[in-house]
Write a structure and sequence with these properties.
single chain; ten-stranded mixed sheet; 15 strands; 30% helix
């Protein structure tokens, strides 16, 4: 159906509204970039796009800090099937200079479980050797994941763009600490679960993550449960088509849809919160930062204005407390709250997933 409304509209309408707080709302803001510099580009163009990030990102983020004194964060989900040694080397250097990290992105089609496992293990190990992933308290390499073409766990109704129906288990078993693919609407891979940080258990059929258990303070995942972090999805009544119909809001930062105050307020209204911890909103945005159309927003005045807006209106310490976070840091905060923590400031860099030391 149009914009996959048959998947998400009813759960969206039936969602519980955020409770009124007597304390400031902690906003954990995470930008997850489906970063594909080789999309529609030869190697020279891909390296030029990387060069734009190296040159322009510092100017966009300069001078801005969150409540913890940290600069704006960005997580590059790099497609490991498009490996390039120079790109990886320069990404590592970039991440050493900025509040940015690299995780795994993967496009595959008509795949097998055996090949998928091998592909993920090879991508994981190569990124770890380059110093670009994290490890847990036992020293095991961990990674975050975004599925190419949205088709996590063979979820596309046409059967394309994946092919593996035990993908969640393979991700979990190869060290994936969580999936950051969703929301996908208007793509038909969209799940019925919306606006949630939740756990799913793999099933023999496709789209095992169409159902799940919301994460909660004081409740820990079982061995088979796999974490998924969704971004806001719903109807934006602040931005209407023809002045009447609400527009789809799927938390994408795009060239044609830059961030704004109205969108930010809608994101906060929709952002997942853990049961038992309503004072923390997990605001995961997504973008395609290897695409020149979106780079104009991400590396230009629209994004700088957005950071200025955040500093002025969403980090006042009275209504809002802002925390810029990478995907790894957001996950640490989730697990910290599950284990009884309260303040995101103290949980973002715990021992759950720590950066690998420089190679």
């Amino acid at each position: 159906m149009f914009k996959a409304l048959d998947k998400w509209l009813l759960p969206y309408l039936l969602r519980a509204r955020p409770v009124r707080l007597s304390q400031p709302l902690h906003v954990v803001l995470c930008v997850c970039d489906h970063w594909e510099p080789f999309h529609g580009a030869d190697r020279a163009e891909a390296l030029a796009r990387l060069g734009q990030w190296e040159e322009q990102f510092p100017a966009v983020t300069a001078g801005f800090r969150d409540a913890d004194g940290l600069a704006p964060a960005h997580t590059f989900f790099f497609p490991v099937e498009q490996w390039d040694d120079e790109v990886i080397r320069r990404l590592h250097a970039f991440c050493q200079r900025h509040h940015t990290e690299v995780e795994i992105h993967l496009h595959h089609q008509d795949d097998t479980p055996q090949n998928l496992r091998a592909t993920l293990e090879r991508g994981r190990d190569r990124l770890a050797e380059a110093g670009l992933l994290s490890c847990d308290g036992d020293g095991r390499t961990r990674y975050g994941f975004v599925h190419g073409d949205w088709a996590l766990d063979d979820s596309h109704p046409g059967g394309g763009f994946c092919g593996v129906r035990n993908e969640l288990d393979i991700l979990r078993e190869t060290g994936c600490y969580g999936d950051f693919t969703l929301p996908s609407a208007p793509n038909p891979c969209q799940t019925r679960v919306v606006n949630s940080v939740y756990y799913a258990v793999d099933t023999p059929g496709p789209k095992s993550h169409d159902r799940g258990r919301r994460a909660a303070a004081g409740t820990f995942p079982s061995e088979r449960e796999f974490l998924l972090v969704q971004g806001p999805l719903g109807l934006n009544w602040r931005r209407r088509k023809w002045g009447l119909l609400p527009r789809l809001e799927n938390a994408e930062i795009a060239g044609a849809n830059p961030p704004s105050e109205g969108r930010m307020q809608t994101w906060i209204d929709l952002a997942p919160r853990l049961r038992g911890a309503p004072h923390v909103a997990f605001l995961k945005l997504h973008t395609h930062g290897g695409n020149p159309r979106d780079m104009k927003t991400l590396l230009g005045d629209p994004m700088r204005r957005f950071h200025a807006l955040l500093a002025e209106k969403f980090n006042d310490g009275t209504r809002y407390i802002l925390h810029y976070a990478t995907a790894r840091e957001l996950t640490n905060i989730v697990h910290g709250i599950e284990h009884g923590g309260n303040s995101p400031s103290l949980l973002r860099d715990t021992t759950y997933h720590s950066r690998i030391a420089n190679p």
